Amino acid sequence: MEHIVFGIGITALAGALATVAGSAEDTESNIGSQGDPNSQVQLAPQMGHLHRIFNKAVAGEPPAYALWCALGAGLAWAFLAMQVNAVLAIVLGSILAVFVQGVYATTAYLGRTASLSKFGQPVYVDILKSMTTVAMAHAFVAIFCTVTICYLINTALGHPFPLPLLGFIWGIALGAAGSATGNPYYGKERQYQNQKFGAGVPISASGNIVCYAEAGERNSLDNGFFTAKFGGPASGLCFGLIVFLELWRTILFEQVGAGWGAIIVGILIILIFTIIDRYIEVWARKNYGPYTAPAKEAAP
Amino acid sequence: MTAIAAKPQAGSAMNPAAMAVGIVLLIILIGIAYVLSPGLGLMALIGVIIGGVMIGFGVHFVPVGGAPAAMGQAPGIATGVAMLAAGAGLAGLFGGAWAADQGLVIAVITGGIGGGLMMAITCMMVNFVYVFGMGIPAASGKVLKDPITGDSQPEYKSQGTEGHGLPFVSFVGGVIGGILGGAGGTLIYIELLDLYKATFPTLMGASATQVLPLAISLAGVFAIGMFLVNAVLTAYNITGTIEGPHDPKFKRWPRAIVASAVASALCGLAAILIVVPLAI
Q1: Which among A74, A256, A289, B58 is placed 20 to 30 Å from B114, CA to CA?
Q2: How far away is chain A from the Cα of B98, in angstroms, using its nearest Cα?
Q3: How far is B202 from chain A, CA to nearest CA, in Å?
């Protein structure tokens, strides 16, 4: 019984950490413009829209986070082997991984933006100075939380995989969940704030992103500030649910029915999410209705 | 003709000669494994090939919209094919590896359910963001009616887009893809783990307990590597985006199966050869 209560406590902690990690990951990728919406950041100068948006998408979020989390976990593992205190080891591992992320972000921004010089897009040094550190800070939160989850899973829950392997697996899952959930909100809702709410962006409008803010030109910090209010928490919820429910069903039901307990509970959870998804889909169809083209304003 | 309309037609590029070459290569690779290690090695290779084929087939189910989905220009999940499939499959492998002590069947099913669970949550959250964050209902661009629910699609599609969000059939496809990916990855892991657990003690002159961490790590690394090989191969077959099992591109799966089988056989042979001494 004590073992199960301990396991549930660790599961809850891991779920909470995963929620923070998902939220920080999405905000970091939006500040760095690393997800799929980056295609528009890259396209905009070619369409005549010069901008001050950071651009570090030389890898997708999942492989990038797999690298950084595996690196953080691997280094933490090495420090642990040197008898360093666990908390310190995880912090040091994450800090070193974040330095790699910083180098990656800097070279990616310079490389990607320089490639647009023929379209007149400048490389802004002040953007490089101010955005990189903010992206690194968010990356640290995401990496630290993920490495801590891996440490808890490995040490407290007894998963057989070593820490670096767990870092790789949960890093790639973090990037996948964060990019899947957070990208549309950044891509459509922020970059195309000039388009009508409640409809997709017409393909003909590609590259026509919003480049101006309330005062002056928009930059990536404005984008991070905007997406942190919905896209970030939604990504956090997604990754938090994945980690929590995966661990919860295993810890509580693994021993029931020689392993079948966890499988049946997993199937039930999938069915519950299927019903929720269907409800959301039907709710949207009923409440928003079919697409109607915006009415053209009458000539005065 | 627009650039979108000029895309190659789905399923029209089957090459029987290439498929035949692939099958011959597969037989040769299995033959090599049979000659070198007729017992454990051959069984492990066959398990690896089946796992790889499951991953390759499963990736076709996953609704991936890529960059256009991030602007609500195309249905699917706004990330890359290989990345999303790897995320789901590796989450499954995590669960499957945990259940490895409970036998092959339980572990493989647990891995499958882990992958399916990850995809179910992700797909639900995608629709959550589209509906409550952006006010956009789901609409498919490839079919007039959802094959499962019968909901009509075209009138919900925004002007100038190919659709958006995840219609119910895409959600189901995503879950099936996650299940197949997670199960396939776990099968590869278990097969290699059994092989390494049996061969490492003799090879390294150490006890079974001493070699266990190494066997687990190596089998895990190979399973992740083979997962990525199969996911990326299939991503090339899909070429960009796919809505799920109702998408015409889904019909391309036979050639991905052959490619995945050959690639898995080659990678599996490399994974087996590290523990099978060559009689030179």
Answers
A1: A74
A2: 6
A3: 22
CB contact under 8 A, A184 and B116: no
Which of B107, B131, B157 lies at the smallest CB-CB distance from A283? B131
- Residue B97 CA to residue B185 CA, distance in Å, equals 10
Instruction: Find residues 50-79 of chain A whose CB sits inside 8 Å of chain B.
Output: 60-63
Residue of B nearest to A178 (CA): B122
Residue A270 lies in a domain: no
Distance in angstroms (rounded) separating the CA atoms of residues A138 and B260: 38
The 3 state secondary structure assigned to chain A is: CHHHHHHHHHHHHHHHHHHHHHHHHHHHHHHCCCCCCHHHHHHHHHHCCCCECCCCCCCCHHHHHHHHHHHHHHHHHHHHHCCCCHHHHHHHHHHHHHHHHHHHHHHHHHHHHHCCHHHCCCCCHHHHHHHHHHHHHHHHHHHHHHHHHHHHHHHHCCCCCCHHHHHHHHHHHHHHHHHHHHHHHHHHHHCCCCCCCCCCCCHHHCCCCCCECCCCECEHHHHHHHHCCCHHHHHHHHHHHHHHHHHHHHHHHCCHHHHHHHHHHHHHHHHHHHHHHHHHHHHHHHHHCCCCCCCCCCCC
Tell me which of A270, A276, A279 to substitute to probe the interface with B (most B C-beta atoms closer than 10 Å): A270
Chain A neighbors of B122, CB-CB under 8 A: 176-177, 180-181, 238, 242
Residue range of the domain that includes A16: 2-196+217-253
* pTM exceeding the 0.90 threshold for the entire prediction: yes
- How far, in Å, CA of A110 to CA of B35, rounded? 53
Question: CA angle B225-A248-B180, nearest 5°?
Answer: 35
Q: Identify the three-state secondary structure at position B164.
A: strand
**DSSP designation for B216:** H
First to last CA, chain A: 76
**How far off is chain B from A255, nearest CA to CA, in Å?**
10
* Number of domains forming the structure of chain A: 1
* Contact between A203 and B138 using a beta-carbon 8 Å cutoff: no
Q: What is the rounded distance in angstroms from the CA atom of residue B185 to the CA atom of residue B108?
A: 8
A159–chain B Cβ distance below 8 A for any pair: yes
Quick one: three-class SS letters along B190-213? HHHHHHHHHHHHHHHCCCHHHHHH
Contact residues on chain A for B221, CB-CB shorter than 8 A: 165
Q: Please provide the DSSP assignment of B25-53 as one string.
A: HHHHHHHHHHHH-TTHHHHHHHHHHHHHH
The pLDDT profile of chain A, 300 residues, written as one tens digit per residue, is 778 888 899 999 999 999 999 999 999 999 998 888 888 999 999 999 999 999 888 888 899 999 999 999 999 999 999 999 999 999 999 999 999 999 999 999 999 999 999 999 999 999 999 999 999 999 999 999 999 999 999 999 888 899 999 999 999 999 999 999 999 999 999 999 888 888 888 888 888 899 998 888 998 999 999 999 999 999 999 999 999 999 999 888 888 888 899 999 999 999 999 999 999 999 999 999 898 877 765 555
A187 belongs to a structural domain? yes
**A98 lies in a domain?**
yes
